[in-house]
Design goal:
- It is a single chain.
- This protein is mainly α.
- Helices cover about 70% and strands about 5% of the residues.
- The protein has a three-stranded antiparallel β-sheet.
- Strand 1 and strand 2 form a beta hairpin.
- The model has no long low-confidence stretch (mean pLDDT about 85).
Length: about 180
C-alpha cells in the first residue's frame, strides 16, 4: 500500500507542477504498470474512477468553482477539465486498489478519508499554482468533502464488486508463448 501511495504522489506532483506536459509520462507509466501488476478485471475499476473523477472536475470547472491552469495561465476554453486532471485520476485509479480494500472495512473510515484527503490534495495543488478556487476555502473544503464522500464509498463498493466477480481474470500479456 505504501508503494502505491508513493507512485500516486510522484505522478500527482508531476501533473500539478508540469500540467499537460506530464500527461504522456503518466499515461506511459500507467500502461506499463497495468500490464505488469493489474488484471483485466481491474480495468473496469480504473475506467470507472477516471470517468467519474474527470466528470466531477469538469462539472466543478463549468460551475466556475475551480479554474485550472492551462499552459501557465488560467482560462476556461475547453469543454472538459484539462488533461493533467484526467491524468491525476488515472494515477489515482491505477494505485488505489489496495487502499480501497483497506477502506472497505468501515464506511466511517471511508468517510473520514473522503472528507480530508482529496480536499487536501486540491488545496495543495492550489498552493502550487495549478488551480484557483472561486469560492471561500471553507466552502470549497466542504464541497470537495461532500463530492468525495460520495465517490470514495462508491469506488470502494465497485472495487469490492469487481473482486467478487466470478469471471476468471488473468494478467494481460504482450506476447503469448
Amino acid at each position: 500500500m505504501l508503494y502505491n501511495l508513493v507512485i500516486f504522489s510522484i505522478l500527482w506532483l508531476a501533473c500539478v507542477l508540469f500540467g499537460n506536459m506530464a500527461v504522456p509520462f503518466v499515461v506511459l507509466f500507467s500502461v506499463l504498470y497495468f500490464l505488469k501488476y493489474k488484471s483485466i478485471s481491474d480495468l473496469n475499476l480504473i475506467l470507472f474512477i477516471v470517468a467519474l473523477g474527470g466528470l466531477a472536475d469538469t462539472i466543478l470547472m463549468h460551475f466556475d468553482i475551480i479554474e485550472y491552469r492551462y499552459h501557465n495561465e488560467f482560462q476556461h476554453n475547453s469543454s472538459v477539465a484539462p488533461l493533467w486532471m484526467w491524468a491525476i485520476w488515472l494515477s489515482f485509479a491505477i494505485s488505489v486498489k489496495p487502499f480501497l480494500q483497506w477502506l472497505a472495512q468501515s464506511v466511517w473510515v471511508q468517510l473520514l478519508f473522503a472528507v480530508t484527503a482529496p480536499a487536501s490534495a486540491y488545496f495543495i495543488a492550489q498552493q502550487l499554482g495549478a488551480m484557483k478556487f472561486t469560492l471561500p476555502n471553507s466552502e470549497i473544503f466542504m464541497l470537495l468533502g461532500m463530492i468525495s464522500a460520495v465517490l470514495i464509498p462508491l469506488f470502494t463498493a465497485i472495487q469490492k464488486w469487481t473482486d467478487e466477480d466470478k469471471v476468471p481474470t488473468h494478467k494481460p500479456m504482450l506476447i503469448k508463448n
